[in-house]
Amino acid sequence: FKKILSTQWLFLVLGGGLVILFTLFLTHRVAGPFYRFEKTLDEMIEGDVSGKVALRPKDEGKELAQKINAFNYVLSDKLAIMENFNSNLALSALQLKKVLEESGMDVNKYGPHLNEILGSQKNIQSLINDYTFSRDKI
């Protein structure tokens, strides 16, 4: 009876140890990616869309990481395009104001509209500046 108990005890200890090692291995492959996802999403909430989720070769969640990285790429690209359009808008408004002044037209008549355009342009630029993104996409 003692031999049977000692044999079963040995199997329980070895089996339990293997289960613990296997569990640690699996949680490492799952918990690590979750931490990286959480870190990247926190950065995105703070306005930094230039980051990427980098996973180890055998980590779980590669599809989700690819989608988050693709989203950041598309959003960075669109923010860069918006920034470019916004700069062109400001330049065009300033050039129009200069042409009006040089042509002798009443700038006061159109000034409030141009100032409203320039004010809106500054507000848009302020919103764009709240984000950190890769500007080399365009």
Structure description:
The chain is built from 3 helices and no strands. It is an all-alpha fold and 138 residues long. Helix 2 packs antiparallel against helix 3 (107-129). It starts with a helix and ends in a 9-residue tail after the last helix.
Would you summarize the structure shown here?
The chain is mostly helical. The chain has helices spanning 2-45, 62-103, 107-129. The mean pLDDT is 88.
N-to-C SSE string, H for helix and E for strand: HHH
Count of individual beta strands: 0
Question: Low-confidence parts, pLDDT < 50 over ≥5 residues?
Answer: none
Query: Averaged pLDDT, please?
Result: 88
- Rg (C-alpha, Å): 30 Å
Distance between the termini: 78 Å
Helix-strand category: mainly alpha
Main pleated sheet: none
Strand content: under 5%
Please, how many helices? 3
Helix coverage percent: over 70%
Shape category: rod-shaped
List the helices and strands and how they pair.
Elements: H1 2-45, H2 62-103, H3 107-129
